[in-house]
Structures are given as structure tokens and as C-alpha cells.
Amino acid sequence: MASTLSRQLVAVLACCCTLAGCATGSNPGDPYEGMNRKVYAFNEGVDKAVLKPVAKGYVAVVPAIARRGVTNFFNNLGMVVTTFNDALQLKGKKVPVDIMRFSSNVVFGLGGLIDVATELRIENRNEDFGQTLGYWGVGSGPYLVLPLLGPSSIRDGSGLAVDFLVSPFFYVNDGEGTVRWTLFALDVIDTRANLLQAESFLDTASIDRYAFLRDSYLQRRQYLVYDGNPPRASQEGGQKSLKELEEEDMREEDPVPLRAAPRMKR
Fold first, then answer.
1. pLDDT given for residue 171 in this prediction
2. pLDDT tens digits for 109-154?
């Protein structure tokens, strides 16, 4: 698993570093559209030839309750990354909730196979290092389609490096790597299987799939970075970071006390 993550990380960083020499496209948010469409076509080919058939077989063979358990297990592992990024974003009230959700699923949910935390109404959140960079005001940069990894951006693609290092997958050490490879493959297959039903919409709709996925991804990422609150323009004309918006909200909630009216001279 570690070697796989390293190769993926190299591919991501290589893509980011070589963009300066690429030609620009017609969409302002997607200046490398020509290159991105080629990578997208490659990813689609791999998906149709390998991932999608395997995912369909997985759904046909594995019972729904078992698939739900696999999804719960990997979602719970993702709370480690979420907790780390919540801490970097100084969300002190969220970190204990993240820890409580992870630990309750591990202890009472058979290692995370059962989502006990949701039944206990413990908030389920998702944070990554790309969102953390956005929280502190780093712009997303141009849209990117990464080989095998799919939709991303300069900021989010670079943030994958930190998330890989934080993820529990990175620290699985079983000698020959059998457990790592098995867990990684199962995670990929389960994720792809969960997308089969949603994908049917794209298959039936008469749309440009590339443009639709790009626009959906960018809007979704903006929503996540700002925790569902639309950004406001700053006086300089740019967008404020979520940290700046939170500080403004705190000032608005703590108004300056009214001063006593001056006495009139007699």
C-alpha cells in the first residue's frame, strides 16, 4: 500500500509541476481542458475495462449487508483524516465529536463495520487537506483530472499528499504487503460499486459528461471548503477565507457596547 501511495503521489505532484507549460483552454476555471479531456478519456477507458465490471460483480456476489459493513469500515477510517484536518482548521468543537464518532464505531460497532455513531446521532463529517488549505485562504487553482484519481485541482491534488500520510492505510505494515493491497483494492471496488446507481443518470442524460462532472466537482468543493456558507467578496475583490468569515461573524455577534449619551451643557 505504501508503494502504491508513493507512486500516486509522484503522479499527482508531477501533474501539478508541469502545468505551467500547458496551453490554456476556453473555460476560465479549466484552462487545461485539452489535457484534462485526454486524461478523462483514459480514466473512462480503465473504468469501463476493469473497475466497472469488477464493481458489478462485487454487487452481484456480496450481500448488501456485507457491502454496507465494508463501506462503514472505510468511512470510519476516514475519520482519522477528518480529525486531523479539523485540528488544523482550529475547529476545537468538532475534534472531540470526530474522536467520539470514530471510537464509538470501533468499540461498539465491531471495529467500524456497524455505524453505531449515526444511530447515536453523532455528526458525520468529511474534511481533507484541500479543504484545510481553502479554509486558510488558498485558492483552488485550475481544475485538473488526475490519472486514475479523477477530478481535482492544483490545491486539492497537492493536498492528497498530506492525506495519504495521515491515513491509517499508510501505516499498515505486513511485510509482503498482502493486507495493504487487499484493503486498498477492496476500498476502490466498494467506492466504485457505490457509484453505480448514481452513474445511471449520466448514462441516460444527453449531456457532456466531462463538463457536468467538472462543474459538479468544483461546486461541491466550494460548498465543502466553506462548510455550506457561500463566500463573500472582500474589499479587494477576492474571496475571503473561511477563517476570515468566521472572525467577522464573531465580531458581529459581539457588538460594541453602547456608550452613554453626552450631557447637554446648560
1. 84
2. 999 999 999 999 999 999 999 999 999 999 999 999 999 999 999 9
Looking at residue 55, its amino acid is A
CA distance 7 to 2: 9
Q: CB–CB of 114/106 below 8 Å?
A: no
Q: Would you put residue 137 in left (φ > 0), alpha (ψ -120 to 50) or beta? A: left
Alpha helices in the chain (DSSP H): 2-18, 33-46, 52-61, 64-88, 94-108, 116-119, 129-135, 154-166, 178-194, 196-204, 209-225, 242-253
Please enumerate in sequence order all residues whose Cβ is within 8 A of that of 19, keeping only pairs 6 or more positions apart, or say none: 32, 142, 144, 154
CA-wise closest residue to 47 among 187, 183, 186, 149: 149
Higher confidence at residue 241 or residue 196? 196
- CA angle, residues 37, 43, 49, in degrees to nearest 5: 135
User: Strand pairing of 150-153 and 143-146?
Assistant: antiparallel
Contact 81, 167 (CB under 8 A): yes
CB atoms within 10 A of CB 206: 4
Distance separating alpha carbons of residues 87 and 253, to the nearest angstrom: 24
Place of cell 492528497: 160
Instruction: Using alpha carbons, select from 192, 216, 173, 151 the residue that is nearest to residue 57.
Output: 192
Q: Which residues contact 47 (CB under 8 A, 6 or more apart)?
A: 192
Count of other CB atoms within 10 angstroms of residue 1: 22
162 and 156 in contact (C-beta within 8 Å)? no
